[in-house]
Design goal:
Length: 127
């Protein structure tokens, strides 16, 4: 069982930055590809970023490329999402997710691949 707890959300003006954190419990973090997703009201959950278990591969959604950066610290069981040049359309609840698979060394953008999800943290970008 993996528990994920996001933090770092809040209200920021357009053009500003936020850094989200996701702390994972359990001993499977280092065996997990990690991802960030977001969901705005009335919209489907959208892939934001993913990182492989050994921090070697990253993947980003088209809408955040060049603005967001995902990273992880396996010693701290934590994954981060640095968000820069924020836009009002980035407003959403952001979710952290874990794909637990000791034999998988890549990334995935598919929600169905993820086994565990956090409760989410709200990010609001004002214009």
């Amino acid at each position: 069982q993996v528990q994920l707890v996001e933090s770092g959300g809040g209200l920021v003006q357009a053009g500003g930055s936020l850094r989200l954190s996701c702390a994972a419990s359990g001993r499977t973090f280092s065996s997990s590809a990690m991802g960030w997703f977001r969901q705005a009201p009335g919209k489907e959950r959208e892939f934001v970023a993913a990182i492989s278990r050994r921090n070697r591969n990253t993947q980003y959604g088209d809408s955040v490329k060049g603005r967001f950066a995902i990273s992880r610290d396996n010693a701290k069981n934590t994954v981060y999402l640095q968000m820069n040049s924020l836009l009002p359309e980035d407003t959403a609840v952001y979710y952290c997710a874990a794909h637990v698979d000791g034999s998988y060394f890549g990334t995935t953008a598919f929600t169905s691949d993820y086994d565990y999800w956090g409760q989410g943290t709200q990010v609001t970008v004002s214009s």
